[in-house]
Design goal:
Structural class of chain B: mainly alpha
Strand content of chain B: under 5%
Radius of gyration of chain B: 20 Å
Largest sheet of chain A: 6 strands, mixed
Structural class of chain A: alpha/beta
Distance between the termini of chain B: 23 Å
Shape of chain B: globular
Order of helices and strands of chain A: EEEEHEEHHHEHEHEEHEHEEHEH
Order of helices and strands of chain B: HHHHHHHHH
Strand content of chain A: 25-35%
Radius of gyration of chain A: 23 Å
Number of strands of chain B: 0
Oligomer: heterodimer
Strand order of the largest sheet of chain A: 6-7-8-4-9-10
Distance between the termini of chain A: 33 Å
Number of domains of chain B: 1
Shape of chain A: elongated
């Protein structure tokens, strides 16, 4: 597999406490990797170790051979909380990074400020920026020098819905149009599932599971939740007439795992035909949150 | 490294504190020359003493302005370095693979340059004030050599002092803490050294002038007139502080994590 990054048993201990415990993850080139976990689960520490800000207590971090070439380390970038000079304007913050990285093209500043939606705020001092604007500017600073691997730690924290959408579009565009590999850590699952192609679920410093978006889809797809007056009669109807044998019963609620070709309307009509009163019926195919929570709770128990 | 230097100079020149401290240091240099007649004459009951009759001129007070640099350059140094940690902006270059030694060296070069700029500006102010009050005078070779020696030693001692302050800023990483420690180190060290001398004499019967080994004590060399017998000790003490501060600062910056 063409991994751009691989960690092997990555561990970090602070004051005898294992904050990150033997995390072995792999990120494919061009992927948008979502690192999901609760606050304090070790996501930021993993990113800090990978980006060289913290030394692992044990374990190994390997980048692909491309990054071993001279100067290629500058192609790895990250935003771990907005790190900006508040006394400078947005454009001046960009200029400090442009100079530090030796980027000759001065137009990069305007291009990137436009990209993150701060084209009109270039001369405004950062101290007058909202949290969302600072987040956008930090991303623009991180994009100076055209990084090929970008780490974003909780990038949508503090953003309004439009800001969240803009950042999501930007990440998609960076990945699809520029081929940038992105690792995003977040605890906002609904947003992560809109961009990520791969996931790593982390809980209490341990990597619980890694999977692709396709694997995620197939794990949660085809779940229909029905609330009925007679659960036993409903079970008989769907097993005998539709051949659906995978289900869970919770009081008067029935969670049915459906197969292709069977959906809400088929189940509803079969139940009606068998005189089962349907109080509510819904397709639960977007229950990512439930899936992730189950994974995290499963690892804790 | 050149990129880091360009970026660090850009940051320095866009800080208001750089200009405010320079203006204040220059103002104090000029005030120091304008009040020199009073300072020299008042103890003798001659507050309006005209120093021209003692041969004072612009060249004679040329390097006196450097005495005003200390506090203002210290403030600028601490704010310039610790701000990178308090805003976490130091991360922006380290994440991009910049060598930590290079990052440290770049900051140190910018600090040395800033101190040199302050020193030159203050010397310019004291020279201009001296010229205004007593005329420029003749640049006699003996006087110029005397001033050049004092100025050269002052720059070396300054490099040692500000590498020490830069080390404190890199170690402490918070603006208030680093500034407080630097001011305390320069203000109260005299008292601590006097106490040390007393204890050495009392307990071990050793008579040592510890002030000879505390670097800020040599910042007065800009006045010139340093006896040639003292020069080797000034050189050794300055170089020792310089090497010690750079080594400790760089190694701890290399080892410690960045938040």
């Amino acid at each position: 597999m063409d991994y751009i990054l691989e960690t092997e048993k990555l561990t970090k201990v602070y004051s005898r406490k294992k904050v990150v415990n033997e995390v072995s993850l792999q990120i494919n080139k061009g992927a948008i990797y979502g690192l999901i976990g609760k606050n304090g689960s070790g996501k930021t520490t993993i990113i800090r170790m990978i980006t060289g800000l913290a030394e692992p207590t044990s374990g190994k971090i390997s980048f692909s051979k491309d990054f071993a070439k001279p100067g290629m380390r500058a192609k790895i970038s990250a935003v771990i909380e907005p790190a900006l000079f508040t006394y400078m304007s947005a454009a001046q913050n960009m200029e400090t990074q442009r100079l530090a990285l030796g980027v000759r093209d001065k137009s990069v500043i305007k291009r990137l400020l436009d990209l993150v939606g701060l084209g009109d705020a270039g001369s405004k001092k950062v101290k007058d920026f909202s949290l969302g604007m600072r987040q956008r500017l930090a991303i623009a600073v991180a994009l100076v020098g055209d990084p090929e691997f970008l780490f974003l730690d909780e990038p949508i924290n503090g953003l309004d819905p439009i800001g969240i959408r803009d950042i999501r579009d930007m990440i998609n565009s960076l990945s699809h149009e520029n081929g940038v590999t992105v690792m995003i850590s977040s605890h906002i699952l609904s947003e992560l599932t809109k961009v990520a192609t791969n996931y790593g679920v982390i809980n209490s410093g341990e990597l619980v599971k890694q999977f692709s978006s396709e694997e995620l889809e197939s794990s949660i797809k085809g779940l229909v939740v029905v609330k009925v007056n007679d659960v036993q009669r409903a079970v008989t109807a769907i097993t005998e007439e539709l051949g659906l044998n995978e289900y869970q019963i919770e009081e008067n609620e029935l969670k049915i795992h459906v197969r292709d070709g069977v959906g809400v309307s088929e189940i509803n009509s079969v139940l009606a035909k068998n005189d089962v009163i349907v109080e509510s019926i819904s397709s639960n195919s977007n229950d990512y949150e439930g899936y992730f929570i189950k994974l995290m709770e499963g690892s804790s128990s | 490294m050149l990129g880091l230097l360009a970026s660090d100079f850009y940051k320095l020149f866009h800080r208001k504190v750089f200009y405010i401290c320079m203006i204040l240091a220059v103002a104090f240099s000029a005030i120091g020359v304008f009040t020199l007649g009073y300072t020299v004459g008042a103890p003798y009951g001659m507050p309006d003493l005209d120093l021209k009759m003692f041969g004072y001129n612009g060249f004679m007070v040329l390097t006196q302005g450097a005495s005003s640099v200390m506090l203002f350059a210290m403030i600028t140094t601490v704010l310039f370095i610790s701000n990178e940690f308090s805003n976490s902006t130091i991360r922006n270059v380290l994440i991009r693979g910049k060598n930590r030694f290079a990052v440290y060296a770049s900051k140190l070069i910018v600090v040395f340059s800033m101190v040199t700029m302050y020193t030159l500006a203050c010397c310019g102010a004291s020279f201009a004030s001296g010229c205004y009050l007593w005329g420029m005078g003749e640049p006699k070779q003996e006087l110029l050599l005397h001033l050049a020696q004092g100025f050269g030693l002052f720059l070396l001692v300054s490099a040692a002092v500000y590498s020490f302050i830069a080390m404190l800023a890199f170690l402490i990483r918070s603006t208030g803490g680093a500034l407080g420690t630097s001011i305390a180190a320069t203000s109260f060290m005299g008292v601590i050294l006097a106490g040390g001398q007393y204890l050495l004499l009392r307990w071990f019967n050793l008579k040592i002038d510890l002030n000879n080994y505390w670097i800020t004590g040599y910042l007065g060399v800009n006045q010139g007139g340093v006896p040639s017998s003292e020069i080797p000790r000034i050189l050794i003490v300055s170089l020792s502080y310089l090497v010690f501060s750079i080594a400790v600062g760089m190694i701890t910056f290399w080892k410690r994590e960045i938040k």
